[in-house]
Amino acid sequence: MNQTSQTSPRARIGALLQGNARQYGMAIALVAIIVLFQVLTGGLLLTPLNLTNLIMQNSYILILAIGMMLVIVTGHIDLSVGSVVAFTGAVSAIMLTSWGLPTVVVIPAALLLGAVIGAWQGFWIAYVGVPAFIVTLAGMLVFRGATLAVLGGESIAPLPQSLRVIASGFLPGGDGGLHLLTLGLGLAGSAVIVWIQWRSRARAGAHGLPVQPAAVTAAGSVLVVGVILAFTYALADYNGLPLVGLLLVALIAGYSFVMRSTTMGRRVYAVGGSERAAALSGIRTRRTTFWVFVNMGVLSALAGLVFTARLNAATPGAGTMFELDAIAAAFIGGASATGGVGSVVGAVIGALVMGVLNNGMSLIGLGVDWQQLIKGLVLLLAVAFDIYNKRRAGSGSALPVLWPRGGRGPGGPAKGGGSARGRDGVERAPV
Amino acid sequence: MSTPNTAPAAPGPLLRMRDIHKEFPGVRALDGVSLSVGHGTVHALMGENGAGKSTLMKVLSGVHPAGSYTGEVLVDGEPVRFADVTESERAGIAIIHQELALVPQLSVSENVLLGHEVSRFGVIDWGATHARARELLLRVGLDENPATPVSALSIGAQQMVEIAKALAKRVRLLILDEPTSALNEAESERLLGLLLELRAQGVACILISHKIGEVMSVSDEVTILRDGRTIETLAVERDARGVPSVDEDRIIRGMVGRDLDQRHPERTGRIGPELFEVRDWTVDHPTRAGRRVADGVGLTLRAGEIVGMAGLMGAGRTEFAMSLFGRSYGRYVRGGLYRDGRALPVGSVADAIASGVAYVPEDRKSLGLVLDDDIRSNTTLAGLRRVSTRGVIDPGLETVEARRMSEHMRVRSHGTSQTVRTLSGGNQQKVVLGKWMFTRPELLILDEPTRGIDVGAKYEIYLIVRRLAAEGACVLLISSELPELLGMCDRIYAMCEGRITGQVSGEEADQETLMKLMTRTGDQP
C-alpha cells in the first residue's frame, strides 16, 4: 500500500510539481510575497508583534472574504458588504451606548440584523430575480444612507471595553514570558490535523481506494506541524493568540468543512456551476441562493462588530471599499466569475496576499498611491494567471485540483481521497 | 435578380455544392453531399433530424468557414470560399434561421435595414431609410407601420421582416430553415405564397421543412438527405389541380431509408405488469397563456418495458417530459402520474425523484451536468442522501459509489475526479445515465439519449438502456431517430402538437406508419 506507483518516480514528482504549480499557485505566491517583504523590511514582517498586527488588521476582510466566496461560487456578487459593515457597526454602537444594552445582547442582535439585511437582499435576488449586482448596488446606497441617518452624521466613541475585547483581546494567561495556552492550542491543533490526515488515509484504504505512500503523508504532517508550531511560537512570544484569531480559525475550519464535506456545500457549488442542472437534480436553487445571502449578511454584521470594536468607534464612513477588498480576495484565491468554482481556503489565501502586501508596503514606506496601484495589478495578474493556466491545461488533467476548482472534497487527488485532508491541514496552517 | 421569370437564364445552376464532407469531433455530419439549385427555383431540402440539413446550410452560408469542410461550393459556376456570413451575404446568399435574428426593441425599418442604413458620412438619413424599408416591406406584402417595434408583431409578421431584411441585402438565394414551424395555417400559406412571388422575381430559395405537404405545394425540386449523404433529388411538377407528381410516401421512404439497420441490441429481460400511468397530462406554455404544449397526454408503462415516444421537433415531447418531472417546464393545468393506481407526488423535482422518477435531459451539457465538476460529484448530485449522514458527505463512500457507477456505465475516464467537461459526448451521457441510476429510479425518462453521439457509443448506451429495463425499470424513450425507436422499443407512442396521435407495438411499427402518425395534426388518436 505504501508503494502505489505504476509510473516512474520521476514522472510522479513531475506530475506532483505541475499539479502543485497550478493548485498552489497562489499559496506559493503568498510565500514568495512574504519572503520578499521579509527581506525588504529587514526581518520586520515576521516579527511576533507584526504577525499579531497582521491578523488583527485583516480579520474583518478575512471574515467578509469567506462570505463573499460563497456568494461568488453561487454566481453572484455582493457590493453592499461595506455599507452593511458600517450600518451594523453603527446600530451596535447605539445599542451599547445610547440604549445601554450589554454586549452579550448586542452581539446576537447585530448578527440578527445582518441576517435580516441578507434576507432582504436574498429575497430580491433569489425570488424576484433582480440581478445581484443591482440589488446589492442599491443595498450599498441604502445601508450607507441608513448609517448616516442613524448616526446623524457623527461618530460614536468610545465604546465599552466588553466590545473592544473582540478585536483587541488576547487569550488569557499572558503574564510575561512565553504564552503557554497559545502554544498548547498550537500543539492541540497540530495533533488534530495530523489525526485527521492519517484517519482519512486509513479510511480511504478501508474503502479499497489507493492511498499515497506513507512517506508522503508523513512529510505533509511534518510540514503542517512545523508551520503551525512556528506560527504559534511567534505569537506566544508576543502576547499570545488574539481572540479574533481564534474566531477566524473557527470560521475558516467551519466553513471549509461545510463547503467541502456537507450536502449543503455541495448544493451551493452545483447551483453556481449550473443552476438549471442543479434544479433538475432536485436542488431548491432559489432557497440556496437566498441562504447564501443571509449568510453574507450575518458575516458582514460580524465583520462590522469586529471593525467597530477595533476602531473603538462607529463612524459614518466605516467599511468603505471593504466589498472590493473581499471580492478581490475571492478572485485572487481562485474563484470563478461565472460561478461554481472557489474555496474558502482560497479566499483566505487571497485575503492574506492582499493583507501582506498592504502591511509589507506600509512597512517599507510605500505611499498609498503605490499600494493601490500594485494591489490592482496583483488582482489582474492573479486572475489572468488562473485563466491562462486553465486554458493551457484545458484538457483538465486528472491531477488534484483544490483551490481553483472548489477544493472541497477529499477526493481531490486523482487516486482517491488519500492525502487531501493532509492538504487541508496545510491550508489551514497559516491561520 | 436577373430575370423575372422561372426559367433559369444564366447557363448552369445558381448554386452547386459538390461532395461536401464535414466532421465534428466524433461525428461525421456530412459525408459527400451534393446539391444543385437553379436560378429562380424553390428547392426543398428534406431529411430526418440529424440528417445534415442544417450543417449543409451552415457550410453554404459561411457559418462553418471554408477550410473546416472539404468539397466545392460554386456560385454561378465560380468556386467560392466563404470565411464568414458577411461574405456569403455579399454573394447574395441569406439564411433565415428557426430562431429569428431580429432585435426586438428596434423598429421594423431599423431591423430591415440593420447594417444597411441609408447614411451619409455615417449619419443616418432616417427619411430615406424609412422610405427604403417601406418599399421592401411592400415587396414582402407586410402592411405594418415601419416605426412599430418588432416585438409588437406576430411571429408570422416577424418572419416577413426577416425576409425583407434579406431582400435589403440584394439576396439571390434565400435559405429558410423550418420557416413555418411556429406559424399558424394562414400565416404559413402567406409565407409560401411569398416564396412563389420571390421566385417570379428571380430569387431562388432553399426550403428546409418537415411538413411534406407544404414542401410539395411550392417546390420545384426536392433533395433528400440521410445520414449525411445525398440520397436523391426529385423534380416536382404539379398538374392543373396542383397535385404534385411525387407522392409523400416516396419522400418518406427516401428520408428514413428502406433497410432497417441492426445496430440495436436484443431485448434480454421480460416485461412485467403495468406499473406507471400518466393520465390526462395537460400543460400550458410558460409565458403564452392558453397555448397547450401538452394536451391530455395519457400513457401506460409496464415494468421492464421500453416505451418510445416519436414526434417531430416541436411536437411537445420534451415539454411533456420536463413538466412531468417535477413541473420543470410550463404551467401545470391538470393530470397526474400514477403508480399501481395511486397518484404520485410530482409537484417538485425533489418529489419526483423521491417518487422514483428520473429524467435524462436532451441538453445534457446545460441541463444534465455541472460541466466544471468532476465525475464523482455529478454522479451523486441527485442522490446525495445515499452517501451522506445527517448532511455530512462520506468522501470515501462517495468515491466508491461513483466509481462503481462509472464502471457499471462503462465510462472511459482517468478516474472519478476527472472534470466532465473534458469527456467525450458519449461518456458524458454515460455519466448522466449513471447519475440518474444512482437515484434508483423506477421510471426513467430518456430524452434524445444518443443525440450527437457517435455510433459506437450509441450501441453502448443502448446496451445500458436494455440492461436497466431488464432490471425492472420502466423506460420512456423520447427520440427523433426512428430507427432508434424501432430498434429499441416494445411499444411506441406518436405525438403531434402536444397530443398523443397513436400507439404502435414494436413488432407492428415501421417508419412510414410512425411518420404518418407524427404528422397527423388535428386528428383524433
UniProtKB/TrEMBL annotation, chain A:
<feature type="transmembrane region" description="Helical">
    <location>
        <begin position="124"/>
        <end position="143"/>
    </location>
</feature>
<dbReference type="InterPro" id="IPR001851">
    <property type="entry name" value="ABC_transp_permease"/>
</dbReference>
<feature type="compositionally biased region" description="Basic and acidic residues">
    <location>
        <begin position="421"/>
        <end position="431"/>
    </location>
</feature>
<feature type="transmembrane region" description="Helical">
    <location>
        <begin position="24"/>
        <end position="47"/>
    </location>
</feature>
<keyword id="KW-0812">Transmembrane</keyword>
<keyword id="KW-0472">Membrane</keyword>
<keyword id="KW-1133">Transmembrane helix</keyword>
<feature type="transmembrane region" description="Helical">
    <location>
        <begin position="89"/>
        <end position="117"/>
    </location>
</feature>
<keyword id="KW-0762">Sugar transport</keyword>
<protein>
    <recommendedName>
        <fullName>Xylose transport system permease protein XylH</fullName>
    </recommendedName>
</protein>
<feature type="transmembrane region" description="Helical">
    <location>
        <begin position="327"/>
        <end position="357"/>
    </location>
</feature>
<feature type="transmembrane region" description="Helical">
    <location>
        <begin position="178"/>
        <end position="198"/>
    </location>
</feature>
<feature type="compositionally biased region" description="Gly residues">
    <location>
        <begin position="406"/>
        <end position="420"/>
    </location>
</feature>
<keyword id="KW-0813">Transport</keyword>
<keyword id="KW-0997">Cell inner membrane</keyword>
<feature type="transmembrane region" description="Helical">
    <location>
        <begin position="290"/>
        <end position="307"/>
    </location>
</feature>
<comment type="function">
    <text>Part of the binding-protein-dependent transport system for D-xylose. Probably responsible for the translocation of the substrate across the membrane.</text>
</comment>
<feature type="transmembrane region" description="Helical">
    <location>
        <begin position="210"/>
        <end position="234"/>
    </location>
</feature>
<feature type="region of interest" description="Disordered">
    <location>
        <begin position="404"/>
        <end position="431"/>
    </location>
</feature>
<feature type="transmembrane region" description="Helical">
    <location>
        <begin position="240"/>
        <end position="258"/>
    </location>
</feature>
<dbReference type="Pfam" id="PF02653">
    <property type="entry name" value="BPD_transp_2"/>
</dbReference>
<keyword id="KW-1003">Cell membrane</keyword>
UniProtKB/TrEMBL annotation, chain B:
<keyword id="KW-0677">Repeat</keyword>
<dbReference type="InterPro" id="IPR003439">
    <property type="entry name" value="ABC_transporter-like_ATP-bd"/>
</dbReference>
<protein>
    <submittedName>
        <fullName>Multiple sugar transport system ATP-binding protein</fullName>
    </submittedName>
</protein>
<keyword id="KW-0762">Sugar transport</keyword>
<keyword id="KW-1003">Cell membrane</keyword>
<dbReference type="GO" id="GO:0005524">
    <property type="term" value="F:ATP binding"/>
</dbReference>
<dbReference type="InterPro" id="IPR017871">
    <property type="entry name" value="ABC_transporter-like_CS"/>
</dbReference>
<dbReference type="InterPro" id="IPR050107">
    <property type="entry name" value="ABC_carbohydrate_import_ATPase"/>
</dbReference>
<keyword id="KW-0813">Transport</keyword>
<feature type="domain" description="ABC transporter">
    <location>
        <begin position="278"/>
        <end position="522"/>
    </location>
</feature>
<dbReference type="InterPro" id="IPR003593">
    <property type="entry name" value="AAA+_ATPase"/>
</dbReference>
<keyword id="KW-0067">ATP-binding</keyword>
<dbReference type="Pfam" id="PF00005">
    <property type="entry name" value="ABC_tran"/>
</dbReference>
<keyword id="KW-0547">Nucleotide-binding</keyword>
<keyword id="KW-0472">Membrane</keyword>
<feature type="domain" description="ABC transporter">
    <location>
        <begin position="15"/>
        <end position="252"/>
    </location>
</feature>
<keyword id="KW-1278">Translocase</keyword>
<dbReference type="InterPro" id="IPR027417">
    <property type="entry name" value="P-loop_NTPase"/>
</dbReference>
